[in-house]
Inverse folding.
């Protein structure tokens, strides 16, 4: 088997929840195992892989359980929600990896790493929280939580009130050297769940948790840079990146240069809540020395790596 290099593969947290009727932990494991099956195709092709993942819906579930149980047990701070979901999704992915290796007769080891991401306390995001999290509330409940707990709350598109939190830019992955050592030793790593648990660095070098969330694609991009990955893959809901998405004149893209990606981004082709952060994360990786990146859906990762589908982003 020819060695291909190191790849960071980012899997969306939404991909674990196929529909509103399939949200149990077993449902999420089954969905995650599908993605892992396709990622192991990569590993069989000779790639050393770090798997990162989103956790938005799962953090929402932890917060909801915490809110319902308030008054009976302690509530869970947001950074601990990130840690909880890193542990549960890491367990799912790691078990799926072990099972997939066993089925294929592959002698490989895997591990999930609880991962912290340092953010800047002076990031403008802290003055302008925008990321909705948790359950919908009545206006009365929202204003009570704002007064009692210091939450920032907003009315969310006529659906009710929600808490919003900062989404700062990730600066450094604390466990990146450990992940690099594991990868160099041939271990498949699951890490940087949800972009990493947001922490700030204090004056004496110690770390403190922060009530914030990090974009998982930005966190994954930073890890890919810090470990010198050869390839950054974003696994998402679509087979290819498109211009004029979902319109009669939709154009699917096989390959994009960095310059083309920037132009299409400036022209407004990529939606803020979906494709835009993925393109931005890839451009950051490439601007920091990354060689190439790929966007496709999980079932097409193997085909995309053979050049049959997906959208490749290249330097020139």
């Amino acid at each position: 088997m020819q060695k291909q290099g190191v790849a960071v593969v980012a899997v969306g947290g939404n991909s674990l929840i196929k529909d509103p009727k399939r949200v149990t932990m077993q449902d999420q494991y089954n969905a995650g195992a599908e993605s892992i099956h396709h990622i192991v195709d990569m590993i069989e092709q000779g790639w050393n892989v770090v798997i990162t993942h989103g956790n938005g819906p799962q953090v929402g579930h932890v917060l909801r359980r915490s809110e319902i149980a308030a008054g009976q047990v302690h509530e869970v701070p947001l950074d601990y929600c990130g840690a909880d979901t890193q542990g549960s999704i890491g367990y799912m992915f790691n078990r799926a990896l072990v099972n997939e290796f066993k089925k294929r007769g592959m002698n490989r080891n895997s591990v999930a790493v609880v991962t912290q991401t340092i953010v800047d306390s002076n990031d403008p995001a802290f003055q302008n929280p925008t990321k909705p999290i948790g359950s919908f509330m009545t206006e009365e409940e929202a204003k009570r939580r704002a007064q009692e707990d210091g939450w920032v709350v907003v009315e969310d598109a006529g659906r009710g009130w929600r808490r919003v939190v900062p989404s700062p830019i990730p600066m450094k992955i604390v466990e990146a050297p450990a992940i690099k050592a594991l990868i160099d030793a041939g271990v498949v790593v699951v890490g940087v769940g949800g972009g990493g648990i947001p922490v700030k660095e204090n004056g004496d070098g110690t770390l403190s948790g922060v009530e914030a969330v990090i974009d998982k694609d930005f966190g994954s991009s930073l890890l890919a840079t810090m470990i010198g990955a050869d390839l950054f893959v974003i696994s998402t809901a679509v087979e290819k990146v498109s211009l004029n998405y979902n319109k009669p004149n939709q154009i699917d893209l096989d390959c994009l240069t960095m310059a083309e990606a920037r132009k299409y981004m400036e022209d407004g082709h990529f939606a803020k809540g979906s494709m835009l952060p993925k393109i931005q994360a890839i451009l950051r990786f490439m601007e920091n020395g990354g060689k190439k990146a790929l966007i496709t859906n999980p079932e097409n990762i193997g085909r995309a790596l053979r050049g049959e589908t997906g959208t490749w982003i290249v330097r020139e």
